Description:
Shape: elongated
CATH class of the largest domain: Mainly Beta
Strand order of the largest sheet: 8-9-10-11-12-13-14-15
CATH architecture of the largest domain: Beta Barrel
Number of domains: 2
Largest sheet: 8 strands, antiparallel, barrel
Number of helices: 3
Helix content: 10-25%
Amino acid sequence: MPETINNMRSRLTKRYILYFLIHFSFSYGQNVVQNVDWYINEENEMIIAYTLNPKMTDDVYKISVSITSDGGKTWFSPKSIEGDLGKQKGYGNKQITWDIFSDVDELEGDVNIKVEAVVYLPPTLIGLGISTGLPGIFNYNMILGYNKINIEYSSDLFLTNECRQLSIGYGYRDRISYNIIIGAIKFIGEETYPTLYALNNNVYEYWGLSIKKDIQIPYNKRKIPISMEMGLINGDEEFYEWIWQGYIQISKVIKIRF
């Protein structure tokens, strides 16, 4: 049986959405710490140099150093250390100094250095913003989060239709999160939606999965942070016959962490 136009469109939509979801996720994995190098000076101090390349301009990272002398079989964290470690912010070249023989009697073998950056965020998040996309054309968004768990509620800003959506996500909402969404759209107006009223079903209930990521848009020599969400939804059989649909939501949210 020939493939229908609707099925073909749905298949292509899912393919492109899945591609962007995968790209969305893995593009976030760029290295924050780059160009790690080291040498030992005349005072028997190890000078460790690295470049910090934050994913977001305002990101704060906890920098730590690990050292191995057996080719990576075992690692230890030096204690007699100072410089650009702990909480660090901003792009640039950094330097750490380790007083070797205050911690160990000797250092020989296959020595290697690991500099790690872990994003630092206060645990509690609240946010309020506006968005376009699902569930309505223009929405308001409210966010509550603690550590990597976040809950977001959104609804139609102008109440053209009764649109409500709840999202439960895992991941830092300031950066990237993986979400389960449920929602409902009630289409109001028998003259506008006569077919739905004739079917006695003017409420579209849906669920799905999404990835939400904060990005920065260059504008007039500045970078404007926005959130972009991409996902796949399914729902009421009478609306889409159980066919998965792709969607995009773009939002601007004011977030406070404490």
